[in-house]
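Title: [Solved] SUEL-type lectin domain-containing protein 3D structure

Original question kept below for reference.
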Amino acid sequence: IGLQGEHLGIYKADGINKVNWVATSEPPKMQPLTWYKLYYYFLFMLLKLRKTKYSLGLGVLQAEINPPPGKEPVGLDMVHMGKGLAWLNGEEIGRYWPRKSSIDDGCVKECDYRGKFMPNKCFTGCGEPTQRWYHVPRSWFKSSGNILEKGGDPSKITLSRRKVTGLCALVAEDHPSIRPEAWEKEDSGSNRNVPTVHLQCPENTLVSAVKFASFGTPSGNCGSYTKGDCHDPNSILVVEKVRTASIPFLYILSSVNSGILESLSLKVQ
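Solution (posted by the thread starter after getting help):
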């Protein structure tokens, strides 16, 4: 698809003039393997699949943008796009294809991750795009005049920051606690089989408050946790002690009611 244009690197700032552009008052639409540049510095490559009932438009858009302020991770919201590639200052962000999943895939409201894993277990987001946010490393940004290329319809593209305002955790007593980096080690330590909560804040941020904590049989999801019939009244107190201490945010679960599988639900701000 557009191999010559890709070989010449016309999606880069120093490659846009490597080809001869033909001026026209009415640019061609849905022409196979055609690149065109609009007045306001947009580049498009369009493709039409022939001899099938399907038609597909792939494109490359070039525009100058400035990076969003702050230090939060930056992502492209590609939910309104079709299929194609994206670059920033010549660095390839990658392929995108935010295809919608089927509403009949069998999604569940709550998932029990215990037991045997199956590929169709715990589906979420039925009927929604399978991909949406595409991370852009901040190190790829210049202070201004960044050249961004995207494919598809550019009118609905947005550049967003991910700002973390809270963290949640839900860990049960039977939750495996071995970290991936310890899998190849013969001895992973004395806490090999002890379920543990690990929370890590973004750079230059701290936990300011414990919004919810319940050790017992809590239920719900992040933002809507509720206490169960079994609840340790000291849950918040214990978590607050960990928060105010200058140590990593770590909490080791220990059983209170024997014979009941207990969990710790936690939300901090």
